[in-house]
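re: the backbone from monday

yeah here it is again, tokenized this time
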């Protein structure tokens, strides 16, 4: 049998995969967890969906990612640890990095973490500006 490769769902939602090429086999990757998949299964998922391309699923094999044509990691495949590191960047660098993120699930992850992080108003304004979201509403209510 071929080598199993770790496929991670680092989101707050489950991801379901149905293999139409087989007898209705399905896999559910629960939020904040992973599954081990064969290379053929991963190639199939990439060919019929945008889950890997959009960064909803992270394949932990650089070799396979290159084989599928992904020379670098999608900015939308950002983890919570990577977001925490972004928050420590200077404002101009933070803005540049945030502008690379364009997928709803990744934006939601950044905004959610920003609301719970102890960020200065200047960085919250950058997040609001880049993603066109209302980030101060909840924070202001908590202060009152």
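seq for it, each position gets an aa:
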């Amino acid at each position: 049998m071929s080598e199993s490769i770790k496929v991670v769902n680092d989101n707050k939602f489950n991801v379901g995969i149905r293999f139409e090429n087989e007898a209705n086999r399905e896999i559910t990757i629960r939020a904040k967890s992973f599954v081990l998949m064969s290379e053929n299964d991963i190639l199939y998922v990439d060919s019929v969906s945008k889950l890997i391309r959009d960064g909803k699923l992270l394949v932990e094999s650089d070799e396979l990612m290159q084989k599928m044509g992904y020379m670098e990691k999608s900015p939308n495949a950002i983890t919570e640890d990577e977001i925490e590191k972004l928050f420590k960047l200077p404002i101009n660098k933070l803005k540049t990095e945030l502008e690379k993120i364009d997928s709803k699930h990744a934006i939601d992850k950044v905004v959610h973490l920003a609301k719970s992080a102890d960020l200065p108003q200047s960085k919250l304004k950058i997040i609001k500006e880049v993603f066109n979201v209302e980030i101060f509403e909840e924070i202001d209510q908590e202060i009152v």
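The helical segments are 39-48, 62-67, 80-87, 91-98, 104-116, 121-131, 136-143. The longest strand covers residues 4-9.
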